[in-house]
Each structure stands twice: as C-alpha cells, then as structure tokens.
C-alpha cells in the first residue's frame, strides 16, 4: 500500500479508511476476507478493526458463513453510528428525513408550511426540524448535519440562493433560513440533491440524465458519478431547454421551455384535475384523460429523444408524476422515444427513480454522509 511519498501516519489512515469502506460496501465480511481482498497484513487488519470497534463504527454480528476450519466473526458497520437530516422546502410544505450510513430513511415527516421569506418562516422551520431531531434522540456527536434542498440554484458553498424565481428566494442566505436549526446546514438545488440520491443508490451508473416531473420540472446531469455543475452552476437545467421559441412563457423569461410543456403543473392545467383525480380517471379508461396523457407522454418522449441525441446516456425519470406511472407507462414511453429517435437505444436506458417525493430530502442528507465517510 505504501508509496515513497506517504508518511506512516497517512498509510495508517488510508488502511483504516479502506477497511471501513470495504466493510460498508460488502455489508458483512470476515477479517480474513478483508486481508485477502485488500492485501493488508492480518495484524494491520486486526488493529484497525479494534480501532473501528472502539469508535463504535464497526461491530461483530455473529459468525461469518463458514467455509470450514475455525469459525470467523462477521463484521458489519454500525449503520446508525452517524445520521444526517435532509429537508426539502417546497411552496406549501416541507419534507424532513433522517438517513443512516447506508442512505436508508430511518425517520421521516411532512408538514404543511407555506414558504415565505422572513423570521416567522425561519422560526417555524427551525422548530419543526428541532422537534424532529429531538424525537430521533441523536446527539451532536452522531448527527452530521442537515442538508436543505430548495427550488433555486444554491451557490457552490451551499450558503445562498443565486437564482430562484419559483419561490422568489433569490439572495436567501443560509444564515437566515437555518438560524433556528440546531446543527450544521447547507443549501442545495433540489434537482441536484435528487440526482445525488439516485447516484448513491445506483452504483452501476457512471453518466446519466435525470428528469424530475414535479409540479415544476427539474433536471440534472451526472458525469463520472458526479453532479455536473457547469461553469456557472447552471449545468443540467434541462427544464429550460426551449423547444418552441413562440411557445408559452416560462418563469425563467424564455418561451417554450420543457417546463412549460412537461411539468406536472402543465398536466393539471390541461386536465383541470388534481393529479389523484387525473390518474384515477386515466386508470378507469376515461377517453379525454387518456388523450391528455398520451399527448403528455409524447412531449416527454420528444424531450428525452433530444437529450439522447446529445448525451447518449441512461435517463432516470423521477418526481411526482413518476410515482403515478406504471410499468406500462414506462414501456409506452420507451416505445415512443424509440419511434422518434434516429437510432436505436438499449432497452434498459430508461430507468424509473426509486424514492418518490422524498428524493431531494434524501439526497441533501447524503451530502453529509458522503463527506463524513471520506474522513473515516
Ligand atoms: Zn424556462
């Protein structure tokens, strides 16, 4: 493991980090397997396992499946040795989640709360998050922090909103918004947070485009397992690809953006129904609703067709509408994309997102988990 330029301390730290990461990836393993797979000596592995156990990060859970000979202990990470909170701020409500070191939701809540810049909102937000943390009984040594997903572009340091026409939150600063939240916080654009959640749980993905069919449409790009930011943090704002210069006015000031034809809002306006009502009628075979849905799927297919011509990567469809979509809808969407595309795509290029409305909250919490895991 050691190289000429590394100090003994650095090598020790890397060994410990690699052992912890290996156990995390494997979920359960034995001492001998760590030795064999990481090519580290038995005494080094023994020493580091002892350290990790003393720190409460790794524990023994019975015996590893035996391959003959002496029984070996099974080692696993302590999943809730650290937790992180994620908050998703929407126009009329907030979602709060806590995730463990595997990114699994261990606690969640949703509260009606109309977004409004000002002290009253900051206090209510702080009080709801404080209650959530108190109920979870996490002390400050276990709680890594709270990520706040918000509709609007957060600056690189996650401390303020640099573009936010949907919530009219331009210039909103973390120090104001999070002043009553009793832990370290950071801000992140909700689409990027959601893409992080997808990335965390799809270990096979290297590059992807992510479409969020929420009230407002969202988009993000993943390149080399990182969220693509662009030079001005505007990379991946797929919702503002304009497909009709004479189309409907978008909140960004342009006309004919995908937002104006592919958002969940648009489906509601076109149908005059709530999404629950719309999909209930659709599943009952109502002809008008069927026609509206068919036209909507066509527009999504057209958008994905255009993305694919440029990107040629898997596309993850997530968000509010994705929750209502059946396998049959996804199959239909695939067929239509194939119909419009100039070349064939592999069958598995279109993926359904996995976490529904909680995705941005989960992704914003994972930022803290991810950062902490680098430090073990
Ligand atoms: Zn736009």
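^ Assign residues to that structure.
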């Amino acid at each position: 493991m050691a190289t000429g330029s590394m100090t003994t301390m650095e090598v020790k730290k890397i060994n410990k980090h690699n052992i912890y990461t290996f156990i995390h990836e494997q979920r359960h393993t034995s001492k001998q397997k760590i030795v064999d797979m990481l090519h580290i000596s038995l005494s080094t592995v023994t020493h580091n396992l002892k350290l990790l156990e003393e720190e409460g990060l790794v524990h023994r859970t019975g015996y590893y499946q035996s391959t003959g000979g002496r029984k070996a202990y099974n080692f696993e990470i302590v999943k809730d040795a650290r937790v992180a909170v994620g908050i998703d701020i929407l126009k009329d409500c907030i979602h709060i989640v806590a995730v463990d070191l595997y990114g699994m939701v261990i606690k969640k809540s949703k509260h009606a709360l109309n977004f409004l810049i000002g002290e009253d909102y900051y206090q209510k937000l702080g009080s709801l998050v404080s209650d959530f943390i108190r109920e979870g009984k996490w002390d400050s040594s276990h709680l890594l922090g709270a990520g706040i997903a918000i509709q609007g572009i957060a600056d690189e340091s996650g401390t303020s909103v640099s573009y936010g026409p949907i919530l009219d939150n331009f210039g909103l600063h973390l120090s104001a918004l999070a002043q009553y939240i009793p832990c370290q916080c950071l801000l992140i654009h909700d689409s990027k947070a959601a893409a992080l959640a997808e990335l965390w749980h799809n270990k096979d993905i290297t590059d992807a485009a992510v479409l969020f069919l929420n009230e407002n449409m969202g988009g993000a790009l993943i390149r080399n397992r990182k969220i693509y930011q662009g030079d001005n943090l505007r990379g991946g704002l797929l919702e503002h690809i304009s497909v009709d210069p004479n189309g409907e006015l978008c909140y960004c000031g342009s006309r004919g953006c995908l937002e104006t034809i592919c958002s969940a809002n648009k489906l509601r306006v076109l149908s005059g129904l709530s999404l629950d009502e719309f999909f209930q009628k659709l599943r009952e075979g109502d002809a008008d609703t069927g026609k509206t849905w068919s036209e909507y799927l066509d527009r999504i297919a057209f958008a994905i067709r255009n993305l694919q011509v440029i990107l040629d990567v898997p596309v993850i469809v997530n968000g509010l509408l994705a929750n209502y979509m059946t396998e049959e809808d996804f199959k239909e969407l695939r067929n239509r994309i194939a119909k419009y595309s100039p070349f064939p795509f592999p069958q598995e290029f279109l993926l359904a997102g996995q976490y529904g409305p909680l995705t941005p909250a989960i992704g914003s919490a994972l930022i803290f988990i991810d950062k902490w895991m680098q430090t073990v």
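The radius of gyration is 23 Å.
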